[in-house]
Each structure stands twice: as C-alpha cells, then as structure tokens.
C-alpha cells in the first residue's frame, strides 16, 4: 500500500494548503457557514461564501475550488449550487458536494439528482446513509445523522464513483475514500465527540475542497483532508477531556489543532491504509 | 409542592433526553442557528434544520418535536413555520414557539398572530415583554431585549395559556412556567452573563423542544429544560469568572456543562418551586 | 495631535457604549451574524438583526444606529439594506457600510453603487482593496481578502470621504480613519491572527455602529471602535499563543477581552496617532 499513498504524502498536502492558501468558494448551509469558514482559515485556506445568482459564476471564476452543501437547501440556494457546479466544470476547477440529509425527504433527493445532472462533482462526501441514498439505494435517513454504517455503504460508494467518474468519501468511525479507478483508502482516526459538534462532517467537506485546490489527485486530496480532520479531532477531544471539559471547549481546540498541528504529531497519529480493490 | 414536581423529576427528564436522543426539527433564526444545533447536541438531542416549503412537512414527519423561532423572520420563513406548525399539529407531535422581538414591529406582531392561528403551539417561551406582546398586551419592546420584568408578565402568560390551552414560559431572573391547568413552576437559577451571549433564550426554546419530545407533560418538560439551562448557565459563568475569563469562554463552558453536568451537581444547585395558583 | 484626539477620549467612548448599551440594528452576512451579535454584546451594546422588507424601516426606527454588510448579499437582502439606509438617513441616525468583497464581482460593485446612491453612509469600513474598489479605483480583489495595502488605499479613502461627506476606515496592519474634513487617525494595534478568524473585519464594522450611536463625531467614534478591537485582538492572540493555543481559543478570548478590558490596560497598549492632512 505504501506505493499508493503514504502518511508523508498526506502531510505534504497539509503543508501545501498552508503555503498556497487556496481560495475556496463555498455555498453551504446556514448552520455551519461560520464554522466552515473558520475551519478553512485555520487550515490555511481562504474562504469565500457567495450565493447570489448574479455573481455565483463570477465568484467561481476567481476561486481555486468549489464546495456545495445542501444542509439547509431551498429553491433559491439549489439554483445557486447548480449554476456554481456548471461554472466549476466549465472552468475545470474541482468541486465537492456534501449531500447532507440525503434520503430524509423526497425534495432533498430530487435536488441531489438535479445537482448531479448539472455537473458531476469531483468529490462527494457523506456519511453512510447519505452516500447510500445518493447512490440510489433505498434507505431511510434519520434526519441528518447516519443510520447506516460506513462499511455497509462501501458498495454504494463504488457504484456512485462509477457514475460520477470521481471520488467518493464515506465518513464514519472509519473513513473510506474510493474512486472510479478502484483505489480505496481507509482512515481510523477521530473521536466519538466529533458527532456532538454540529458541522464537523460539513467541515470535512470544506477541507476536501481546500485540498483538491492544491492536489490534483482528488482521491489523494480527499484522503489528506479527512486525515487532517481526524487527527485534529481526536487531539482536541483528548485535550478537552483531559482538562475536564467537553464538546464546547473541544470546538475551539479543534480549530487550534487545525492551525498548529505539526508534522511529527500528525505522522505519529495518522492511521492510514490504502489499496486497490 | 413536592407532589407537583420535584428536582428528581427534572433530572429524570434530562437523563431521558440523553438516552433517547430525540430528533428536533428547528426552523430558527440565522443568528442562533449554529448555537442551537450545538446546544441540542450537547444536551444529547439530535437537531435537524430545514425550511424549504417543499420538504418542511416531510421533515416534521420524521422528527419527534418542532421548534419555531421568528428572530430573523421574512415572508418565506414565516410560511415555512406555518406549514411546519400545521404538520406538527396534524401528526400530534409537540411544537414550541419563540416569539423573538414580539412587539418590536407591527409585522412581527402580525406574523405571530398568523402562526398562532395556524396551530396553537404546545409551548411558547419568551421574555417578559415578548410574552406580554404575544398575549396582546400593549407594550413597546426595545429590540429583542425585554423591557418588562418576568413577574409583570405572569398575568399575560396565564391569559396566553388560556388561549393556546398550552404551556407558557416567561424567562428572566426567575423563570416562570404556567399552563392552562393552573400549574406554575418557578426556577431561580442562571447568571447575569447569560444575557451577554446571543441566543441563550433561543437555546432555552430549543431545549424545551427536546424535552417535550421525551416528556409528554409539556409543563414539566418545559420546567426541566429551563432548569438544565439555568444550572448549566450559572455553572459556566462561575467557572469563566473564576478563571478571569468572560462571556466568550463562558459560551464554550456552557456547552461543556450541558453535556457533562451530573445528577449530584444538578440537584445541589437547582432552585425549583412548583404550585397550583 | 493630542488636541485632535487622545487615548483617553477613546476610552471615554468605550465606557459610554458599556454604560448606554445602544441598540444597533444590523443587516449583515450569514457567516458572521452570530459573531457580530456576540461582539456587540461583549462590548456592552445591544444587537438586533432584522431584514424583512415589511419591518426593516420600523426596526431602524427603534435603533440608535444601523450597520449594513454585503458579505453574502442577494437581491432580497440588498433591497433590505437599501430600505434601511434610507430610513436611517431620514431619521438622522448614523449608518455604517461594510463593502465586503468589493471588486470581486461586477454584481457586488453594482450593489455597492446602489447602496451609496440610496443614502450616503456615515462611515464606510473595509480593507485596502475594498475601499479602493468602492471608491471606483480599478483593482482586482482576491475574494474577500485584501490584495492592496492599507497605505495604498489612503488616496481612495479620501476621495470616497469627499463623495460621501463622511468617514472612511481602511483597516489593515495599521488602521486609518479619514473624514471629509481632512482629519486622519492611525492605529497600530492588532495581531496577524486576527485575519485567521472569519468576521473580524465585519466585527470591527459592527463596533463602529455601536460607537457612532453614543459618540456623534463619527470620525472619533470609528477610531475608538477600531482601537478597542485592535487592543482586544492583540491581547487575546497573545494570551492564546502563551497558552499554546491558536485561533479557535483566541476567538473566545477576544470576546472576553471586549467585555473585561480595563482602562489601564487599554491606555497602556493603544497606539494612536491623529493629525490633519
């Protein structure tokens, strides 16, 4: 597996984001919009949020990548996302879709179909049930939380990668990243408290956008982004718990870790497997 | 009063939220939407935010309770709230209304009337002037802050409870919870700094939604939710002040306390009175 | 310069905001709306956010100042801002405009023109490239970050002050505040980490709104607001760094500092120059 992807490759991508500070255009949801901007800044990227139909294509035109997140979708915002995905495809910049709550309502499913038809995203990231639902599997989502294990969703992820010819990330206790060329990475970092802060999954998606802007191999970029968040997440949760604190303090410490994590600590902690399947 | 409601009853509700993790659908304001999601998660509930007219009734259909908050209302969002309140009434799940800034503008008052006409909420929570204004009392609100004492608003709360046949909470230095059956609880926890963090009142409303999802007696559920927030609030303010910190640090510590507060500390601090009037 | 403006004058304004708790109506962007409310509260002001066309003029009618921020503009929100700016001008209350991302897209530039035509704001605050673009200078903005130095933008600021007959603030490593009467103040506080938290510039604008509500000399009020944020910013960054923490922890400490900063520490740190040019 070492020949496919090494921890040092991941760190090189983390360093590249910090050095090149890519501009990431995000059309994201109202719950996480502030956190996602702060996550991008802490990791060294530069966020811009814009959704007006009149400017969304122009903003894509100055960005290095696009992130689209349907968490609090409505018809106006879905059209913004559609325009932006088309503009990104036309310009050849990477795009990332987070199908938050896929399967929760018929409208949400229709909107995801519409976005996939507009332009296939370079990467799609979701939890198990979101990826299964996006892939067309019959599954009931319990709100925006996952009711399917990440492992169960691997087949769906591979089918979806076939359809988009792109990279699919299924996040969970273990994160899986597959692509249309049969590559498959697994990351076993993270902490249970990460599910107790709103928008950590959405933040992962934002980071994938930043990493795709500096690393043209989207499967590798996605793996690097998930590794950074997993390591920073477990580090911040451990630090909060050790101080008798909880998920509120952890949120601040997570941003600290995204900013200050060094190579030595990253390499010591990251648990990566990569293979062809 | 012990026969009506005891501190141990309140703790049982807190434990039930943690254990059952109810899905709370919130249509809330843009200022507090992130904090409210995090407050629900820290308390053990599961938040979902959705406002598109095309899906709002479907989302109510998978939730255990509904929270509606008019803080940053506009015509689109008011219609979302109306659809959701009707769907919740039809399904028989509890709904909570936070009439933020009631009395501040004529439009705000009209929207509140419209929501009350759509379907009477199970619980309404506001500060003194918001409850007085919602009850139809002639009062000038100073923005979204209260210019009437909680005590002055008790008569208005009782009149409003008569109209909705539900539970009304007037929050302030002392929180009052009354219902249409003449029950009245008072909580004397909290801290002045709680008014220095935006959205603490709205967070109280969110918690009421979570508690109503696990405790069918809405008056008791509302009292339990307010008690949890009051105790967590005073604990976090005291901890911040003791460390030479202020309201910024307190916000993180508040989430920590919602997550980690234990029965012993809760019972030691809670100051509850309950009676029939 | 001492006769124009002294550090003690600035502190007097900080104390006045804390004492008088002005109601500041903000129509701001979705990324920073929560932080800006918390910044206003920590500084002692009282925020209200409202954007519905049906109530925006009424809300201006009970506020002491208006803040308008175009960060996540769309047609509905731009019209809200236009109505509010006209209402503020009619009532004679101060208004502050933050032209976030000016120059990034043609639509953004058109909206700024439209807002300036609606009613000249009392104060405009932006980074160097935003002020240059707002003044009509030909400049390419890199998203919402500044690609022009604050110094380069001084000429543009003076031209813009001539047009609006108001006060213009160009923020950067050194903050500059100029007005149509040829007054010019400079502040050399702050910390590089302030650019690593989203919405710090927007928070500066919010504080300017609060200070204009209690200090009728808008040039002085703007200088006082920028001084408070600069001192609180460097203090919180130093404290975070000293504790081995980063920008996540710094955000909480910044709110703490806005709330708890005392006169002695402020006067010890503030680096003010004021002159006629």
Query: In percent terms, what proportion of residues of chain A is strand?
Result: 15-25%
Largest interface pair = A-B, 36 and 34 residues
Characterize the main sheet of chain A: 9 strands, mixed
Percentage of residues in helical conformation of chain A: 40-55%
- Rg over alpha carbons of chain A: 17 Å
Question: Average pLDDT across residues of chain A?
Answer: 94
Ranges of chain A where pLDDT stays below 50 over 5 or more residues in a row are 138-143
Q: What sort of overall outline of chain A do the alpha carbons produce when their principal axes are compared? A: globular
CATH topology (level 3) name of chain A: UDP-N-acetylmuramoyl-L-alanine:D-glutamate ligase
By secondary-structure content and strand pairing, the structural class of chain A works out as: alpha/beta
CATH architecture of chain A: 3-Layer(aba) Sandwich
Count of separate structural domains of chain A: 1
End-to-end C-alpha gap of chain A: 11 Å
Number of strands of chain A: 9
Number of helices of chain A: 11
CATH homolog superfamily of chain A = Ribokinase
């Amino acid at each position: 597996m070492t020949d496919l992807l090494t921890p040092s490759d991941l760190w090189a991508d983390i360093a590249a984001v910090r050095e090149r500070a890519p501009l990431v255009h995000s059309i994201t949801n109202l719950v996480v919009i502030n956190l996602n901007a702060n996550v991008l800044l802490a990791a060294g990227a530069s966020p811009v949020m814009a959704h007006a139909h009149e400017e969304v294509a122009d903003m894509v035109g100055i960005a290095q990548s696009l992130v689209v997140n349907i968490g609090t979708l409505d018809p106006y915002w879905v059209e913004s996302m559609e325009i932006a995905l088309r503009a990104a495809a036309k310009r050849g910049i990477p795009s990332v879709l987070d199908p938050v709550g896929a399967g929760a309502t018929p409208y949400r499913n229709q909107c995801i179909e519409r976005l996939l038809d507009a332009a296939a995203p370079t990467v799609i990231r979701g939890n198990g049930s979101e990826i299964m639902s996006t892939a067309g599997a019959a599954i009931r989502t319990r709100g925006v939380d996952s009711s399917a294990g990440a492992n169960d969703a691997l087949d769906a992820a591979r089918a979806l990668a076939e359809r988009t010819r792109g990279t699919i990330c299924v996040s969970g206790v273990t994160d899986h990243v597959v692509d249309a060329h049969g590559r498959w990475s697994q990351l076993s970092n993270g902490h249970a408290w990460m599910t107790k802060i709103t928008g950590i999954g959405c933040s992962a998606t934002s980071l994938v956008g930043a990493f795709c802007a500096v690393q043209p191999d989207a499967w590798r970029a996605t793996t690097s982004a998930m590794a950074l968040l997993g390591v920073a997440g477990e580090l911040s949760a451990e630090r909060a718990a050790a101080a008798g604190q909880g998920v509120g303090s952890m949120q601040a410490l997570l941003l600290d870790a995204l900013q200050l994590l060094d190579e030595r600590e990253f390499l010591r902690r990251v648990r990566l497997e990569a293979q062809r399947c």
